[in-house]
């Protein structure tokens, strides 16, 4: 059970630069340098963890096409990889079936 706690702690780790950026945004929600740090961090996270950052970003800058594009690309990328993985498994499965028929 202590292993689960360690896993949760590791999953909740927040880099110091992100903490500083969050603090800057509390003082000035339009600080683009702080947002840049959060965007870079979000781009290195799974979409389910990054989504909150992207949603805050587009809420703060609703008319920024650039920020909407980043958010949409993050969402589309996960769909693309899911689709690619699923199709690969289907095609790999078909090849195995075909190979078994030929033998």
Automatic annotation (TrEMBL):
Name of protein: Cleavage stimulation factor subunit 3
Species of origin: Ovis aries
